[in-house]
Amino acid sequence: METIELNTTQNVSLEFPVASVADRILAYFLDVLIILAYGIVLSVVLFAWLGLEPGFWLIIFALPAFFYHLIFEIFLNGQSPGKRAMKIKVFKADGSQITPANCFIRWIFRLADISLTSGALATITIIVNGKGQRLGDIAAGTTILKTSKKHGFNQTLWMDVEENYQPRFPEAEMLSDKDVQIIKEVIQATSNLDRMPDTYAELLSNTRKAIEHKTHTASSLPDKEYLSTMIKDYNACHREA
Length: 241
What we know:
The chain is mostly helical. The protein contains ten helices and four strands, in the order ββααααβαααβααα.
């Protein structure tokens, strides 16, 4: 499986799997089914129930289907319903969240990538490119990554904290949601220290240094225990707030 190394805001590198061609094709067909279902319901309501003639109204109500991918990728932060079902998501190539401009460029290129070539051009480009990019992605500077529970960006920040627990590091309140999300990603990515221990140890150390610098804290705790405590203290601080 192809992977892409993304740099987080804490200048820590994480590796995430690129969405496979099969994932993208299945997501595409799920979206097609949703569009078709919308078209059928629209036809029944407009023509069978309301008795309207095809024309102006058909054009107006067909617009959501035409802009389907653009609308959902903007408002669902890089996911259509099909992509969400397949646990894949559009990101910028540097790992940051996409912008409406990125979404628009991807959508414009769908005509050549997918519509006019039945997806053949997109499939060939993705396979040859090796970075999960069709022409639209290359033009927009985006890619599509897997966001499964193991690797996802959207895992919950919250954890159970004992009622009488007192934060060891009250400074954890200074952290942002994204900081805590990054810490959780790093801890999960380094859960198997039997594989590439030097790389994982450096990843933990760099993350710890970034968090220590931001919170002005210091501790003799091992890296992973320190970071785990920070997550717990963050939750405790916000529970008390």
